[in-house]
Specification:
Elements: H1 4-11, H2 14-30, H3 36-51, H4 58-68, H5 73-80, H6 88-102, H7 107-114, H8 122-177
Helix pairs in contact: 3-4, 3-5, 3-8, 4-5, 6-7, 6-8
């Protein structure tokens, strides 16, 4: 049995906070009033800009891209929040590993260079490491973008279908009780 103090602390655990934040943004996207394709396009743009190294400008770039590509702007900004202090190390590392695999390099060397390794030959290797990282990140960003588009679109269509079914059932129920 959890004590009151443990229950209180579990609400503040970083993973619990992350789960609540994801759930909040998920429902926020589901409730947007726009066609599912446009919302999904916005979320996908945001995910791409959130994962791709934009040096803090991901939300602004996602908003601009959503405007140009006629996507839902709110979904693009929400989608860009995929990159945050809890997920950035995961995406950086995975981008380095994928890039190293593409260029047939030792992934531990690339990860070490990106995460601030020993710094030997940093200037000489900077261009190569950056190229490897960007290549891996493009693969990762594109993959997550495509997945986000289809997942969000399916979730919105399903959410709206269930909402409509509930509305119809309630309408039939109220019609039957009159």
């Amino acid at each position: 049995m959890q004590t009151k103090n443990n229950a209180k602390n579990s609400k503040n655990h970083p993973l619990v906070k992350l789960k609540r934040r994801i759930r909040y943004h998920y429902f926020k996207i589901l409730r947007l009033d726009d066609p599912p394709e446009r919302i999904a396009r916005g979320a996908a743009i945001g995910v791409f800009m959130g994962i791709f190294p934009t040096f803090g400008a991901g939300s602004l770039l996602a908003l601009a891209a959503a405007f140009v590509l006629k996507a839902n702007k709110a979904a693009s900004v929400i989608g860009s929040l995929i990159m945050n202090p809890l997920t950035s190390v995961f995406f950086w590392t995975l981008s380095a590993v994928i890039g190293a695999a593409i260029f047939n390099e030792d992934s531990s060397v690339i990860v070490n260079a990106i995460t601030g390794g020993n710094g030997e030959g940093a200037l000489w290797n900077f261009g190569r490491v950056t190229m490897i990282y960007i290549a891996g990140n493009l693969v990762l960003s594109t993959t997550f973008t495509a997945a986000a588009y289809f997942i969000v679109k399916k979730a919105i269509i399903g959410h709206r279908r269930r909402k409509e079914e509930k509305r119809r059932a309630k309408k039939e129920y109220t019609r039957g009780t009159e």
